[in-house]
Task: structure prediction
Amino acid sequence: MNRINIEDIESNNSIIILKNHFNKKNSYFEENNVIFNNFYKKFLFYKKNNNLDGYIIPSWDEWSNLNINNLKFISGFTGSNGIALIFCDNSNISNIDYSKDIEKFDIINHFNIFITDSRYLTQVNHELFGNWLVIDIKDKKIIQNLLKLLKIKKLGCDPFLCNEKLELLFENIDIVDIPFEKSSNQSDLLNLPWIINTNIAGENSLNKLDFLINLMPQWADSALISDVSFISWLLNIRGSDIDYSGIVLSYLIINKYKRHYLYINKNIYNFLKKNEINTLFINNIQESNIKSISSDKKLKIKEKYIDKEYFDILKIDIYPLEEIYDLSIDKVITLFDKKTLTRGFYQNSYLLKDDKKNKQKKHDSDIFYYKLTKRKAIKNIDEINGFIDAHLIDGIAVTKFINWVNSLIDKNDIALVDLDELNAVKKLLEFRIETSCGTFAGSSFKTIMAFAENGAIIHYTPNEKTNKIILKKGHKCLHNILLIDSGAHYYSSNYLKYNRSILKSITNKYKNNKKYKLNNKNTFRPNGTTDVTRTIAIGNPTLEQKIYFTAVLRCHIAAASTKFKYGTNGKEIDSITRKFLHEIGEDYSHGTGHGVGHILNVHEGPHSISIYGEEVLEDGMIVSIEPGLYLKNKYGIRIENLYVIKKCKYNNMLKFKCLTIVPIDEKMIIKENLTKTDCIWLKKYKKICRKSFI
Result:
């Protein structure tokens, strides 16, 4: 292998070079020294015995769900999308003196490569430790040219983590199947799924199964479903196998002419096989009050749990997850997302022995999968009503939190108490639990509470090392801004009484309005998932902050107020949204919006509002609108609401109907910079918030 020095690529602006990067604030290396060293011992063993150039470690599990433990331990990265190429033992790099002549050291023996997307290019500077070459995943040619320059020909990867995404990225490289760590996200604990009532799901599972079977091609007798969010939606069940999500890790085989097969965690299988009630377990899981910040990531719901009788009604037989690889069916159509199903599944399952090369089966599978995911994305009236009530109760909690933060500052901008990011996260969680009437099921993602320069890191979440002080008692405010991006899952099988004491005193200016009745009735039933971002001023904002905030607000309003024809896709809305930032020479490096699951994943496809959003937006889809602006080492701004797409009354057009009910900080707005249309939208939104709270 030719020696390639770091100076050979320093002129490439698309590659971020982190030299001897051991951030004192992010000491994963010190805290996980044993795990770290064991990892590299295994790596060096595999490298030597399999003649490898390196090893691939992605941030997902075999279902393509987030499972970042391995990646976190070897790099420090905590984001949701990362791929590490390990060439050398980073644990020894810290002992080398690079201060004078780092350029003399060759890349392959002293650097590893980290690939991520544009959302995390700032974050990696704060989290990665060691020597890394960081590249944006969209720069595929740069990645491939660099690997060619380094003469990388053979990389190892766990086959159950190697999906089509990796194969396409490293298409000219031999990927060798080498299991490294346990790739499954299965827990040894019994996390029993629960049943979603039909009047909440809007449709019973038998009807959904019939719809699926009718979509199958004539030549196919069976369908393999590997999309776990779709399985949970299809069977009207939810679980807590993955943090911040209601999905149940499983595989499902649907048969046209006989009973179906569900492959599920062996602990759940054993529980259902015995059909015994584990009283201790049920009592523990039914505690609805979440008492600590660490427990909100696992969904907890007081509801009916699955049993053998439920699956008998659906004509489903239950098997342990591992037995999926032993089953063989003739004429199987494989329903899967080609980008996520792993080569390990292909190689180990008799079901798919010949299907990867069968173009007709892949084509039919793509159409089949597309129609099903679209059906899930278009919410029915019961799901939408659940979302509406969930956003009302969530809006109350977030508004209470924002008003609480403002109450900690006196008229002279002096802080009355101490407050940091972690305590703010905890307080927001307390407000959500307090106002939910027992319907809070868990957070829908890890809360982003980012003050000042931390806000410039798009997906920043505070920890003990990065925790920033927001307010210091007796001190004048720093005149900076706080970005709060958070969400929750809510579930209630029964209608709840309208409790005025819960909704009272949200803000002083709204408290005299007593005309509004919730949903024009005295009951409500929160069932859905929320995701909201607000940027608020801590003290008086600067002129620059107000100018940029107003520009971001105009972008949000431009998208939210758009009426569009049937056939419009997310890419077109994304272009409309960015207009006012482009006018001042700014932009943001993430998508404008994403779909949202119903007590499932907070990010759901197939639709999105982004430069890649080719999917047509349709009536009943729920989507976020969240433009932003991020100034490195200064602050970040983002304004996010969720919307349901609805038909316009008088013509063949569609519009966005707002679900999120959280006031926008008026201190951050320069009203002179708003158009008449902007002002009308803002006034209307303010009125909606006012009416919703009292």
Observations:
- The mean pLDDT is 81.
- The chain has three domains: 6-177, 194-377, 381-693.
- Residues 210 and 256 are 9 Å apart (CA to CA).
- The chain is about 30% helix and 20% strand.
